[in-house]
Amino acid sequence: MHNNIVMLVAVLILAPSMVIAMSDDESGQNSIIEIPDRYFEYGNNYNNPEYDRRFYPYFETIKEFVIRHNLLIHKYYHDGEAWSLLFQHPNGGQAKIDIWIRNENEIEIQTFWWRDEYSKWTRFLKWGDKQLIAPDAQILSQALSTSLREVLDWKPDEWTTIANDCQELWSPYTKEEFEAMTPKWPLVKP
User: Fold this and answer.
1) Where are the beta strands (DSSP E) in 5-118?
2) Phi-psi region of 121 (alpha: psi -120 to 50; beta: other; left: phi over 0)
3) Distance between CA 20 and CA 1 in Å, rounded?
4) d(CA 24, CA 21)
5) How many structural domains comprise the chain?
6) Three-state SS for 172?
7) Domain presence at residue 154
C-alpha cells in the first residue's frame, strides 16, 4: 500500500466482516479492505481514530498474515496503542505478537507467550526482544513471519520469568471457572 493514503472514508464493523474504506489522494479512488469478523476479538471494542490511521497503510499486510496463520486481531488491548495478533501456542498456553505503529518512521514488534498452572498458582512467561523496523509493508510482513517462527520455537523450559504469586488473584475461582475465563484463541497454523 502507498504511504500517501491521506483520509479515512469509513470504518464499519459489519457482520460477518470488518470493512475499511480509504481514499488515495493520487488516484481519487477508494480502496476497500475487508477482513472476516472471525479474525477479530472484540473484547473491548475500543477504537482510536488516530491510532487506526497509523495502521491503515499496513492493514492488507496484517490481514494476509492473520488469515494465513489463523490468528485473531485484538485492537488496543487495555486501551494501549498496539494491535495484538493472538493464538494458542502449540506447547500450551497463549501467545501474541504486538504491533505498534509508533510514528511515520518506525514500527515496533514484540512477542509474548504465557502458560498458567492453576494448581500451582503460577504463570510462566516468555517474551522476545522488541524489534524496531522501517515503515514498509514488505519489511513488516517479513518481521511478522520471523516473529511467529521465533515464538513457535520457544520451549517450556525457556521462560523469561515465572510468576508464582497468583493465588490471591486466582483463588476466588475454581479451576473450572478460571479455565472458562481464559480466552479460547485459535490454534496457530505455522
Assistant:
1) 5-14, 17-24, 30-36, 72-75, 83-88, 94-103, 106-117
2) left
3) 14
4) 10
5) 1
6) coil
7) yes
Domain that holds residue 122: 39-181
What letter would DSSP give residue 135? S
Place of cell 515465572: 162
User: Is 170 in contact with 179 (CB distance < 8 Å)?
Assistant: no
163: in domain: yes
The residue whose grid cell reads 498458582 is 121
CB neighbours of 162 closer than 8 A, spacing ≥ 6?
122, 123, 124, 125
Spatial separation of the C-alpha atoms in residues 25 and 34, rounded to whole Å: 20
In a domain, 15, yes or no: no
pLDDT digits (tens, 9 = 90+) for 63-76: 999 999 999 988 88
- What is the DSSP code (8-state) at residue 133? E
In tens, the pLDDT along 35-55 reads: 555 556 555 456 677 778 888
Could you tell me if residue 139 is inside a domain? Answer: yes
Cell, residue 96: 501474541
- Of 157, 133, 159, 158, nearest to 145 by C-alpha is 133
| Closest-CA residue to 112 (of 92, 95, 129) | 95
Task: For residues 55 and 105, give the distance between their C-alpha atoms in angstroms, rounded to a whole number.
Answer: 13
Rounded Cα distance between 36 and 17, Å, is: 4
